[in-house]
Design brief:
The chain is 36% helix and 28% strand. The protein is of the alpha/beta class. Strand 1 and strand 2 form a beta hairpin. Helix 5 crosses helix 9 and helix 7 crosses helix 8. The longest helix has 26 residues. The radius of gyration is 19 Å and the shape is globular.
Amino acid sequence: MWTVGVDLGSESVKIVCLAKKKNEYRLISYGLFHREHPELIRETLQHPNLKRANIRVALKDSMVKIRKLELPPAPPEDLDQMVKMAMSQNLPEPIASYILRYQPEQKIVLISEKKQIDEYLLELRQFGIVNPAILEPNSNTLVHAALYNHPLSNNQRYAIVDIGHSAARFSVVSEYGLVFGRNLSEASGADLLALQNADAKTALMQWLYKVAIEIQNSIENYQIQFPGVQVGELLLTGGISKFQGLSAYVQDTLKIKTGFLKAFQKINTSGFPHVLFEDLEQNYATAIGLAL
């Protein structure tokens, strides 16, 4: 079976096609396109092979809220109604205005507004995506890519720090999946560019400091909600994650092991030059997570 992951970023669209045979995934193709050229994306997705594939698309993090929710044991058929009852008093609009997805292993609920989802589906049409098989929150797709390539054992947790050109996000992962998420304020590539400082070195240090502080605040917020289980490692990803010593600065400042999410690590890429993926993997983690 072939699957296609489509990651619609603010500036570019990343596409990855994987083929699964038994327990192995093999890379078939990949590509990065500028958003202002939707015709190229439509043409790519109309290729006979990709057209027959299972197309999956990431939801923007801004479209999904994550809330901790612990429910008493109940039959699976009753969970949907229990989640609606539990959340109805905590949402500003009537419960019918939302799509709720409860993940019992992590004890969290993902919340999206139906109106936003409908608008997003219309946006996808300009890229030739009419009926995506899956719409998956961006944070969840990164978790899929991380757990496939960096498996966890019981009571281990790491955090994914996704630093993109226009936004940044912190997510904590257990062996069951996503357990906590938080946006990182002033930590994206755009926030770095917005620092209007005559001294480029000073501007860079200001940005690095803000990134480290936001990560530290996120760790503390997570520990308030989930006391007793520490974050043991940070995995950086996103288009800005390898920027000028960011990994070393975060590790030295926060005293926590910091590395990179190796999105291609366990995928068969034998049909492509291996050197390509050392620089590309930070851009394609979301698309790979969708295709897995």
